[in-house]
Protein backbone atom coordinates (compact mmCIF):
# COMPACT_ATOMS: atom_id res chain seq x y z
CA UNK A 1 0.00 0.00 0.00
CA UNK A 2 2.86 2.40 0.75
CA UNK A 3 4.09 2.01 -2.81
CA UNK A 4 0.68 3.21 -4.04
CA UNK A 5 0.78 6.19 -1.68
CA UNK A 6 4.30 7.09 -2.82
CA UNK A 7 3.32 6.66 -6.47
CA UNK A 8 0.24 8.86 -6.14
CA UNK A 9 2.25 11.49 -4.26
CA UNK A 10 4.85 11.46 -7.04
CA UNK A 11 2.15 11.84 -9.70
CA UNK A 12 0.63 14.77 -7.80
CA UNK A 13 4.04 16.39 -7.51
CA UNK A 14 4.67 15.89 -11.24
CA UNK A 15 1.28 17.46 -12.05
CA UNK A 16 2.13 20.47 -9.84
CA UNK A 17 5.51 20.93 -11.54
CA UNK A 18 4.08 20.59 -15.05
CA UNK A 19 1.26 23.04 -14.29
CA UNK A 20 3.73 25.60 -12.97
CA UNK A 21 6.04 25.10 -15.95
CA UNK A 22 3.09 25.61 -18.30
CA UNK A 23 2.19 28.83 -16.48
CA UNK A 24 5.76 30.14 -16.76
CA UNK A 25 5.88 29.36 -20.49
CA UNK A 26 2.46 30.95 -21.07
CA UNK A 27 3.27 34.04 -19.02
CA UNK A 28 6.81 34.76 -20.24
CA UNK A 29 6.79 33.03 -23.60
CA UNK A 30 3.38 34.17 -24.86
CA UNK A 31 2.73 37.12 -22.52
CA UNK A 32 -0.60 35.59 -21.50
CA UNK A 33 -1.18 33.96 -18.12
CA UNK A 34 -3.59 31.04 -17.86
CA UNK A 35 -6.16 31.14 -15.04
CA UNK A 36 -5.93 27.53 -13.85
CA UNK A 37 -2.30 26.24 -13.56
CA UNK A 38 -1.51 27.88 -10.21
CA UNK A 39 -4.68 26.56 -8.62
CA UNK A 40 -4.09 23.08 -10.05
CA UNK A 41 -0.50 23.16 -8.75
CA UNK A 42 -1.67 24.11 -5.24
CA UNK A 43 -4.29 21.36 -5.32
CA UNK A 44 -1.78 18.74 -6.49
CA UNK A 45 0.84 19.89 -3.98
CA UNK A 46 -1.60 19.59 -1.06
CA UNK A 47 -2.46 16.03 -2.11
CA UNK A 48 1.23 15.18 -2.66
CA UNK A 49 2.08 16.46 0.82
CA UNK A 50 -0.62 14.49 2.61
CA UNK A 51 -0.06 11.29 0.62
CA UNK A 52 3.68 11.61 1.24
CA UNK A 53 3.02 11.95 4.97
CA UNK A 54 0.89 8.80 4.90
CA UNK A 55 3.58 6.89 2.99
CA UNK A 56 6.19 8.12 5.48
CA UNK A 57 4.12 6.87 8.40
CA UNK A 58 3.88 3.44 6.81
CA UNK A 59 7.63 3.28 6.27
CA UNK A 60 8.62 4.61 9.70
CA UNK A 61 10.18 7.66 8.06
CA UNK A 62 8.78 10.22 10.49
CA UNK A 63 11.09 11.65 13.12
CA UNK A 64 11.27 9.63 16.33
CA UNK A 65 13.16 10.70 19.43
CA UNK A 66 14.12 7.48 21.14
CA UNK A 67 17.11 8.46 23.26
CA UNK A 68 15.47 7.42 26.53
CA UNK A 69 13.31 4.65 25.07
CA UNK A 70 16.34 2.89 23.58
CA UNK A 71 17.79 2.40 27.06
CA UNK A 72 14.65 0.68 28.40
CA UNK A 73 14.22 -3.11 28.57
CA UNK A 74 12.68 -4.70 25.48
CA UNK A 75 9.33 -5.53 27.10
CA UNK A 76 8.95 -1.96 28.37
CA UNK A 77 9.82 -0.61 24.91
CA UNK A 78 7.20 -2.88 23.36
CA UNK A 79 4.58 -1.81 25.91
CA UNK A 80 5.43 1.82 25.30
CA UNK A 81 5.32 1.31 21.51
CA UNK A 82 1.90 -0.33 21.79
CA UNK A 83 0.62 2.53 23.97
CA UNK A 84 2.01 5.23 21.66
CA UNK A 85 0.67 3.54 18.53
CA UNK A 86 -2.79 3.00 20.07
CA UNK A 87 -2.87 6.67 21.11
CA UNK A 88 -1.80 7.75 17.62
CA UNK A 89 -4.51 5.63 16.02
CA UNK A 90 -7.16 7.16 18.28
CA UNK A 91 -5.91 10.71 17.59
CA UNK A 92 -5.66 10.16 13.84
CA UNK A 93 -9.18 8.73 13.66
CA UNK A 94 -10.61 11.66 15.63
CA UNK A 95 -8.81 14.10 13.33
CA UNK A 96 -9.99 12.19 10.24
CA UNK A 97 -13.57 12.26 11.53
CA UNK A 98 -13.52 16.01 12.06
CA UNK A 99 -11.69 16.50 8.77
CA UNK A 100 -14.41 14.52 6.99
CA UNK A 101 -16.99 16.89 8.46
CA UNK A 102 -15.00 19.79 6.99
CA UNK A 103 -14.92 18.01 3.63
CA UNK A 104 -18.72 17.84 3.53
CA UNK A 105 -18.90 21.59 4.18
CA UNK A 106 -16.36 22.15 1.41
CA UNK A 107 -18.57 20.52 -1.20
CA UNK A 108 -20.79 23.62 -1.06
CA UNK A 109 -18.01 25.74 -2.63
CA UNK A 110 -15.98 25.35 -5.79
CA UNK A 111 -12.39 26.17 -6.65
CA UNK A 112 -12.89 28.99 -9.16
CA UNK A 113 -10.25 28.20 -11.79
CA UNK A 114 -10.37 24.40 -11.97
CA UNK A 115 -14.07 24.07 -11.09
CA UNK A 116 -13.63 21.28 -8.54
CA UNK A 117 -15.51 21.24 -5.25
CA UNK A 118 -13.39 22.68 -2.43
CA UNK A 119 -14.15 19.48 -0.53
CA UNK A 120 -11.90 17.53 -2.91
CA UNK A 121 -8.99 19.66 -1.73
CA UNK A 122 -9.94 19.24 1.93
CA UNK A 123 -10.32 15.48 1.41
CA UNK A 124 -6.54 15.06 1.27
CA UNK A 125 -6.34 15.45 5.05
CA UNK A 126 -8.86 12.81 6.16
CA UNK A 127 -7.67 10.35 3.52
CA UNK A 128 -4.05 10.66 4.67
CA UNK A 129 -5.02 10.55 8.34
CA UNK A 130 -7.00 7.35 7.78
CA UNK A 131 -4.09 5.78 5.86
CA UNK A 132 -1.73 6.75 8.71
CA UNK A 133 -4.17 5.21 11.20
CA UNK A 134 -3.98 1.94 9.24
CA UNK A 135 -0.17 2.02 9.37
CA UNK A 136 -0.06 2.74 13.09
CA UNK A 137 -2.68 0.03 13.73
CA UNK A 138 -0.32 -2.43 12.05
CA UNK A 139 2.51 -1.13 14.27
CA UNK A 140 0.31 -1.55 17.35
CA UNK A 141 -0.57 -5.12 16.37
CA UNK A 142 3.10 -5.88 15.75
CA UNK A 143 4.10 -4.58 19.20
CA UNK A 144 1.19 -6.34 20.91
CA UNK A 145 2.03 -9.58 19.12
CA UNK A 146 5.68 -9.35 20.18
CA UNK A 147 4.57 -8.73 23.76
CA UNK A 148 2.24 -11.73 23.66
CA UNK A 149 5.07 -13.92 22.34
CA UNK A 150 7.30 -12.74 25.16
CA UNK A 151 9.89 -11.30 22.79
CA UNK A 152 13.29 -10.74 24.34
CA UNK A 153 14.62 -8.63 21.48
CA UNK A 154 13.08 -6.36 18.89
CA UNK A 155 13.43 -7.63 15.36
CA UNK A 156 12.13 -7.11 11.84
CA UNK A 157 9.45 -4.43 11.53
CA UNK A 158 9.89 -3.41 15.18
CA UNK A 159 13.55 -2.50 14.66
CA UNK A 160 14.76 1.03 14.04
CA UNK A 161 14.66 1.84 10.34
CA UNK A 162 17.35 3.87 8.57
CA UNK A 163 15.56 6.65 6.61
CA UNK A 164 18.36 6.65 4.02
CA UNK A 165 17.34 3.13 3.00
CA UNK A 166 13.74 4.24 2.51
CA UNK A 167 14.59 7.34 0.49
CA UNK A 168 17.38 5.81 -1.56
UniProtKB/TrEMBL annotation:
Record GO cellular component, one term: plasma membrane
Subunit structure: The complex comprises the extracytoplasmic solute receptor protein and the two transmembrane proteins.
Subcellular location: Cell inner membrane
Record flagged with keyword Thylakoid: no
Transmembrane segments: 7-28, 40-57, 78-98, 118-138
UniProt-listed InterPro entries: DctQ (IPR055348), TRAP_DctQ (IPR007387)
Domain spans labelled Tripartite ATP-independent periplasmic transporters DctQ component: 17-143
Originating organism: Jiella avicenniae
Protein function: Part of the tripartite ATP-independent periplasmic (TRAP) transport system.
Record family assignment: Belongs to the TRAP transporter small permease family.
GO BP annotations, alphabetical order: C4-dicarboxylate transport
Keyword RNA-binding among UniProt keywords: no
Gene Ontology molecular functions: transmembrane transporter activity
Keywords tagged on the record: Cell inner membrane, Cell membrane, Membrane, Transmembrane, Transmembrane helix, Transport
Membrane topology listed for this record: Multi-pass membrane protein
Entry protein name: TRAP transporter small permease protein
